[in-house]
Amino acid sequence: MTQETTLMDSAQYDRVFFFDIDNCLYPPNSGIMHLMKERIYAFGRESGLDEASVVDTCETYLRDYGLSVRGLIMHHKIDPTEFNAKVDGSIPLEDFIKPDAELRTMLKAIKTRRWAFTNAGKDHAYRVLKCLAVDDLFEGVTYCDYTEPDFPCKPERMAYNRAMSDAGVSDVKKCYFADDSTKNVEAALQLGWTAVWVWPSVDDTRIDKAIPQIKSIHQLPEVLPQLFK
């Protein structure tokens, strides 16, 4: 995505930091996820789901398959392109996300390659990065391709393997990760990555206390100071 990363010294920047996007690079209270759920439920109704059960069905698919859209594709044969247009593509991201100078400064200071790793679709992922004004700082993005039959997504191991393949890294010890989902963080740790949980409040019932937690992605240098200039 940018010439900056290609100019990095290969010995110093052979490590890769994988950043989740939604609710991680921007705060979870932005309102985007609430609006996204409303659009998903509306799409579910349009696709024939019963009004009384649409919410439970979509949330069950989210829990069982990692994404509601994945379950809708598998069980209701929806058109992924139509979903992308009516749900992901319909969110006015510019109304919720503004350029983040502090985030940009933090990302530029990290002594690793930077790669985005999201469960969102391609268009949504790139739109968010552009709204934050950090799209030029990422070497690439691993996203969910809704048109791919039974596409993998976090926290499935195949999704992490794909991210490593996309980024061209084979050593799990050289992989770093930040995500708002405890399941995704735990999956990364099980694989051997170094992972950080990004969430604004502490819930001791949700995650191993030994896992580093930061309330905002801007605090990343506090828990991984060795990676920063």
Automatic annotation (TrEMBL):
This protein's name: Suppressor of disruption of TFIIS
GO BP term, example: nucleotide catabolic process
Organism: Coemansia guatemalensis
Top-level division of the source organism's lineage: Eukaryota
Record-level Gene Ontology MF annotations: nucleotidase activity
Coiled-coil zones: none
